[in-house]
Request: fold
Amino acid sequence: MENLLPLVAATLNAGTPLALAALGLAMHERAGVINLGAEGMMLLAAAAGFAAAFHTGSPWWGLAAGAAAGAALAAGFALLVVVFNASQYGSGLAAMLLGSGLSAFAGVSYAGRSLARGETGLPLLRELPWVGNTVFALHPLVYATMALAVLLAWFLYRTRAGMLLRAVGESPESAHALGYPVGRIRTLAILAGGLCCGLAGAYLSVVYTQLWSEGMVAGRGWMALALIAFGMWHPLWILLGAYLFGGLTMLQFQLQGMGVQVPSQFLAMLPYVCTIAVLALRGANPGWLRRNMPRSLGRPFLPER
Amino acid sequence: MIQLEARASASRLATWLSPLAALVLTMLGGALLFVILGVDPWQGLRLFLVEPFNGLYAWGELAVKAAPLALCAVGLSICFRANVWNIGAEGQLVAGAIAGGGVALLAGPETWRGYVLLVMAAGMLGGMAWAALTAWLKDRFGANEMLVSLMLTYVIQLLLGYLVFGPWRDPYGYNFPQSRSFDEAALLPTLWEGTRAHAGLALAFAAAAVAWLFLARSYPGFRLRVVGAAPAAARYAGYSPRQALWTSMLACGALAGLAGMGEVAGPMQRLTTSVSPGYGFAAVIAAFLGRLHPAGALVASVVMAALYIGGELAQSRLGLPASIVGVFQGLALALLLLGDTLVRHRIRWRRPAPAAR
Reply:
């Protein structure tokens, strides 16, 4: 038990950025927008967050700056996709390239620096035996992410606004015909999702590693995209999937610690190989895939006047 | 409020002007960036617009960078024409570099000069094998080719890291993570004395010509384009989307593999941890800028190569990070998409109608 708890804590910690990004992207996709720019938004946010935390000395400002950076890039994406009706795939790739370029450009002077360790853990709960210094000693954002997943599930399935969001994702034509502003709803979903992706990126640099290095997101944005389909577009399944992947990342360190004689590069391949396995598994089962997939995903919508 | 109206048909001229406009605007954006950074904008832009074309050696360097870009961009054009979203050309490039490099390492000082042909074939097969993995996962399991090809890019880069840190590391290399340098017989010949331009450039031209013949003048190429452009019509005509998937992926893998082989058997002459500064990703932009046409991809690759060289010059002469290239690349693609919207749509300004409920 004592050995297991630190592992659980490490898994939650590693799964949080994936979960945040995937939940953000799920907001996009529920409105019928696929955003391939997640990796770029996370990278830009990681750089912006690190810079802000470095100069203000407060990780909270870092997270806020990261969220703002993610939302800013998402706003550019929304401009292309919603206002100018451009291809979602192309625009996402542009956001990815622009985000990673900007982050590498802006972050170059922060390479090799590190942040001071901030206050973590939940008050009161952190005093408990065993769980206090493991599972409840993580950054508050870890627990906020869990709350966000529950909140998002409630929003999507229990509120009128959530139903409207889903309606836009299923059939923007019908939503438009009923007089709802499809473009505005999609824009809001994109901005909120960008905010989450930004938080995820900033979490990586400000809380998780407390360092900045070029390309540090290392494909997590793309993994988050795969996770959404794996979680059937449902926030709680997505959260679970993210922790599964977080555990996998931890597994490579565990195996190394146990003295398994496998070159580190092969262990580092694990999350990518498992993502591919997940993609193949759910692709092989169309019923599972189609159950919750928003019908209009990836399709631009141009109202007929 | 802006309102878009679809045009009945897009003008051919405007379709080709859109990438030009995007590049001009990117340069304007670059000038703005230089002003913000406190660099004389003309001095900054000179590095991107003039210096890469200044003299024989510079043209050689341009060719060194344009060749892998063009090979990948031509391959990607075929994929995108078939509506196959392969964005892992970078991984296929690395696979070609590993396969080509592995064969090149087997050559000794006495090896026959024609051995380089074997290196080329190995590079091509390596890229094809890596692309085939994506195609198979898509074909057999319906896995999204975009995500799979990207994930495989990370995997193959780690494999390359393993090889140059482990079994292929040069025993006399002072522990640097790199292989021994290849012997003469395994290296691509240089095209002109005094430059580093190698046979990869000729391969790029040949690839563009063959790809054009295939896409524009052959029946399988026609079927592939129909599958990409009008899936419903293709189904009615009985054209196989599976065939289009495999053809385009294998073609792109072969070309990207050649590009990777050209890097290690050309300018690098050995395997190191990084064989490409993101050529496979930049080629995505080159393919779009070139309007998914092989000739366009060639021209766009030269432009992207000039961007890379400008970035290196900005680093060495102005002390700016070389990653400024990434900013320009992303900006160019975003502006191109914007331009294409204007090609396909008419813009109307109108007051928002009161929402009917």
Remarks:
- The radius of gyration of chain A is 19 Å.
- Chain A has twelve helices and no strands.
- Chain A has a mean pLDDT of 88.
